[in-house]
Fold these 2 entries.
Entry 1:
Amino acid sequence: MTLRGRKMLKWALWTVLLFLLGGIQSSPAFPELFGMRPSLLLAAGICGVLLEEKIEAACGYAVLAGLVWDVVEGRLLGFYGLLMLLICAGAGWLSENYLRSGPLNSIWMSAAGSICCGLVCAEFYLFIWGYADGAVPVVIWGMIWRGIYTALTAPLLYWLMKKMQLKSMGLVESGLRLRASRMRGDRKE
């Protein structure tokens, strides 16, 4: 299989995972933590940004995750898509310039992204209309618990997406390493 075909396979696997996560996130049987479910689609978008080298493609994946989230939650189409674009572009910029890609960074980025999404969502759907008058601490604590729960699921998603990436792209990467090691051996002689 060519390099382009392997990349297409990786993106196809990640997209199927995205739709599965959307179904799992909206399932009423999914376990809750203090009445909150994790933002699996947000964690998948951030893990995609951390694993992908090109930030443009990763942000496109994050927007797709946000659009799936819009459909799952029944929100205005593009609301979570725009939020995911902003959050994942920030995560991609951080990982490109300052941080290494790894499960620990996916944990805190997913938690922070979940809390930011919760704050924006609460502002537009609750606070502006006065629906949460007197219940602001309850809403804030709910967002914090959702962020913690999302952070707990992020390493599992990072590991799963990394395995998918290695299975689809692994032979190409190992072939490149082999060629590079041969080149270094040729230089020494």
Note: The mean pLDDT is 84.
Entry 2:
Amino acid sequence: MTVSEVIELSALLLDIELTDDIRNNLVRCYNFVEQELATDYFPILEVDKFFHVEDKIYYKDFSRKPYMLKGIQDFRGDSVSFRLTPEYITLIKNYHGGTFFVKYYYIPDTKELYSTCTYGAEYISILKYGIAAEYCLANGDFEQAKIYNDKYKERIKLKGPKKKK
């Protein structure tokens, strides 16, 4: 499913006509909701493999934008001790060019109108109500924003948020 398709469903829910400005605003709302879902309710796990690591793994070298590290394992599957710094992860032991698997939760990249959604079709209802709530809030319609936000939260509860492990 594309962002455009979710935006169209949100516009139907809001009973608004999609102009270029409204479409752009809804895309911004989509990105906010998707990132909120990823960081607060339905975390997305990624595993990156790093080769020939001496003692540091730089965040800039990750395939995605990490926000919470789950763990690091060496090539044998053993857990590796580490310390976080603002720019990189320091491995506690000196492994001398080892291969490591880093598990982490990530924040989805900002999407454009025709990007593919990070979440599948089973999240459409959650996304469209979240987008509607954000759109109403941004436009000062606080009563409608609350109504849509309540439906958004209700659908999140029904879906049953994943636990961060």
Note: The chain has a mean pLDDT of 93.
